[in-house]
Amino acid sequence: xxxxxxxxxxxxxxxxxxxxxxxxxxxxxxxxxxxxxxxxxxxxxxxxxxxxxxxxxxxxxxxxxxxxxxxxxxxxxxxxxxxxxxxxxxxxxxxxxxxxxxxxxxxxxxxxxxxxxxxxxxxxxxxxxxxxxxxxxxxxxxxxxxxxxxxxxxxxxxxxxxxxxxxxxxxxxxxxxxxxxxxxxxxxxxxxxxxxxxxxxxxxxxxxxxxxxxxxxxxxxxxxxxxxxxxxxxxxxxxxxxxxxxxxxxxxxxxxxxxxxxxxxxxxxxxxxxxxxxxxxxxxxxxxxxxxxxxxxxxxxxxxxxxxxxxxxxxxxxxxxxxxxxxxxxxxxxxxxxxxxxxxxxxxxxxxxxxxxxxxxxxxxxxxxxxxxxxxxxxxxxxxxxxxxxxxxxxxxxxxxxxxxxxxxxxxxxxxxxxxxxxxxxxxxxxxxxxxxxx
Length: 439
Description:
globular; six-stranded mixed beta sheet; UDP-N-acetylmuramoyl-L-alanine:D-glutamate ligase; alpha/beta; 16 helices; Protein-Tyrosine Phosphatase, Chain A
């Protein structure tokens, strides 16, 4: 199987699904993993859920474990550029040949599962592929990001050493529930007997998570109870701070923007401290790993003229974090937003925090298999109802060009919303402007 054949096969599974509300939807994933020999149980795991910040937190965990000498697998979703990013080992995505080879090896199990439960979906297959790739690579630890929710997510078949719930916000309300309490209850489904659960969730979600942990016998560790963050004078395009836990003090330098990343870092550190001593990175390992951290598409800044930020913010919680980070990082600056959203997202909730900034907007679209973009005109109408200056341009590259031309050197262009528009325009930027824009 070639990589092209692998991607064509996977894209053909996008419409293969069991309703996300179906109470037995984990059964097909369990069947697939059983036919694969339960690869997810062949190594230690950390299981990372939450509404926002779980991808960044998972990346921090994996970086620290790799720095400590542990062979580490990292599964996050969605990918920005290539499906191979769904399975990274020691920070490196699988090669296209490795990716295709793993999928080829899975075909008998996929066919057996299809005969019993229907063909595994796109998400199920990619997740299982990561599990198998980590087993083949003989990783010591796998860091696994939850897809949607927790209770019935395909990742909830791991047997973690530590569970993490970063926070609770409104997203996927059609699946998880319409209140923070309902969403917290679903995400808390990753709690397991005897397994420590670390969370930075605030009320009312925290109380729900604590209650579920008590019911299942999972020790609960609240980040606010066990970690203190002390800001330090930071770098021009990064941030410095200390995190003091019950066990150690970490002097950290993060080359990523956004104060919310400090809370993600504290969450990751508290989780690492819950590991067995032989798996726990040292303070020096953590400090070295975080100093070299790269999180593409997460408050990623290129100091060009004008400067540009790429950040996936497709729910109100992420949007609020981004708006706050922009205001803190670029005070007195004006912003030129390029935004596209999936049709299913809460467009008003996402856009509202951005409208509070001094900014203009270009709304655009994207093309992606199995996804439908919200009409740029619909987003424009939302802005106009709030008296916001905006344009609608369907082609994302053209939209970025307009935003850049209308911005002067003191402005910051912000590409945000859907993963798909961030990925498209980030790739275009790196190809046509490139790393030379960094200083």
